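As promised in the previous annual report, we have extended the structural survey to additional targets. Below is the entry for Aspartate carbamoyltransferase.
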Amino acid sequence: MQHLIRTSDFSKEEIMGIFDDAREFLKFEPNEILKGKIIVTLFFENSTRTRSSFEIAAKRLGAEVVSLDVGTSSTNKGETIFDTVANINAMKPDAIIIRHSECGLPESLTGFVDCPIINAGDGKHSHPTQALLDLFTIYEHFEGKTEGKKIAIVGDVKSSRVAGSNRRLLPRFGIDVNLVAPDCFKYEGDEFKQYNNINEIIDELDIIMSLRTQLERHNQIYFESLQEYAKDYCITNEVVGDRDIILLHPGPVNRNVDISDEMLKDPRSKVLKQVTHGVAIRAAVLKKLILK
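The corresponding structure token record, generated without further manual editing, is:
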């Protein structure tokens, strides 16, 4: 049995197989390869794209989805998350998809289940399916020629699990990862080049990935307002100019803080393409883990 906790759980060959399946699922043709399977979603943090994407992906493959309302679950009666998951497992689902604010929690639950666990985001640590769909979007745009492409991940790289997963995944496919952030949001490591301003590297880039400022993950105020932050870190048409750069964002986008309205409408913005790709990638992941 295989779980998906972090992107390293899949080899490069397995990822390419997921991409092959995702291309087929992008046709959005009727498919019932998971008919009779039951998938449980357990989200302890808010989610729109990830949760709905997983659920739509599962239903497009013929599976049934049980979405548990954690607000009324037995964890509010004192039951531990481990007992909650063990009880769900005793009902014999075919996969459990979980999001939680605690780093490492999805991995710690793997010993309590007889079905795959898929990490839909754990704290600041990892968001593997988001990184896979980001890579897929890049891979498809450049027709598989990712070696030597240069990306700048811009914003709150310190707190972003998306940044964390992409830092680990993209270099495996030859992509040069660079980080752009104010000092308070800088990554605490030295294996990547880091910049204070995107203008320092803009002429070298093929890809920009903008991030949402993770205000809910900070215990102090770094900027007087989001508008103050946006002065230096919002991706605008003035910043990108006429350069041949594609623009990504994991969502939700804070308009005119992360990316300007104008750039979101620009053909170089692949933000909605990422959402479409997310359904196909997650369908491919479900197929791989459930039918293995």
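The mean pLDDT is 93. The chain has ten helices and nine strands. These points will be discussed at the next consortium meeting with the crystallography subgroup.
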